[in-house]
Amino acid sequence: MKAGTAPVSALRRVPGLKTALVAFVLVVILGSGSAAVANWQQSATATIAITAGAAPIAPAGNGTIVVSPVLAVRPSLLDSTSVRCASVLPQAQLDNAASADIKFTWPAATTTSAYVTTLTFEGNGYSYQRTQTVSAPSAVFTLQRTQASFGIYILRVQPMNGGTGGDPVYRTFKYAQNDSTNCYYANPAGRSPLGTPAITAQPVVRGTTTSTLPLSWTAAPGATSYVITVKSTTSSYGTEFTQGGLSATLTFPQAAADQFGNPAAKDGDKAPYYSDYLLRLQPMNGTTAGDPVYKTIRYYFWNSSVGDN
Fold it and tell me: Is 88 left (phi over 0), alpha (psi -120 to 50) or beta?
């Protein structure tokens, strides 16, 4: 037998050796970076691949913050200042016309299959509201040319990717007898077709391996469900799910702490799931998408909070 070695059979008989070796390997892995990362891979057989960098996580479920979640592909954001309006016919040809076709145009959004456009008259003594879904980035509305019909209209344009609603934009259209090109800023507050929910968050509840954040919100009139999307601003962690009620609980990974409340692993408080998150809540009624509301979640080892975006 060579010097410095021991019989393998003798080592195998040492009580608790296997457990000790497993623990040793885990300590080496977890101590060589920020907290350990877990990649949940689902195939015919579910397996967990652990790499250095963050703590193991469970498969994605309602409200569970995971690495690389499956998120709906939403249309890109529109720029409301790029919306243009004009009569289809030259203004000079409208003097004796009973009606006018007003065309609204905007730059195309990416990953968009259609645009839901609504034009609504604001004021007393006259009523007008029309909604149409168009595939191109333009819509034409026919307006009467009467003293009652001239005035302020609000245009809402919401890009859609199938049944996935993007963020709408609003534009004021000031319709006048001698001018059909006056489009300018419109305040979006209170204009959602499904109302605007208000989000309330409870304090984060810390656990041993996970932390939970209870959320609730007020009902949006006309909404039958709510799509909740949570995305880290600095890493690939997040989640997305649909909730029929008015509350949900987000579950975050939590790095282990020692008896003094400090991270048990080196740099455990720097794990990638400790981050600012963008919370998006969008009321839905079938394929009708309301205006989303946003909050910022600041989730960290030492403290957490929820505030306005």
Answer: alpha
Q: Is the pLDDT of residue 54 over 80?
A: no
List, in sequence order, every residue forming a beta bridge with 229; answer none if it has no partner. 240, 280
| Helices vs. strands in the chain: H and E counts, helices first | 2, 22
Strands (E), 254-303: 275-285, 288-289, 293-299
Burial of 216 (0-12, 13-18, 19+ CB in 10 A): middle
Statement: residue 28 has pLDDT above 60: no
pTM of the predicted model as reported, rounded to 2 decimal places = 0.78
What percent of the chain has a predicted confidence (pLDDT) above 90? 79
The three-point CA angle 219-217-276 to 5° equals 145
pLDDT tier for residue 282 given thresholds of 50, 70 and 90:
very high
End-to-end Cα separation, the chain, in angstroms: 69
The domains of the chain, with CATH numbers, are 53-72+194-308 (2.60.40.10), 83-185 (2.60.40.10)
Q: Where are the alpha helices (DSSP H) in the chain?
A: 8-12, 17-30
Position of tokens 């039958």? Answer: 224
List the alpha helices (DSSP H) in 164-291.
Answer: none
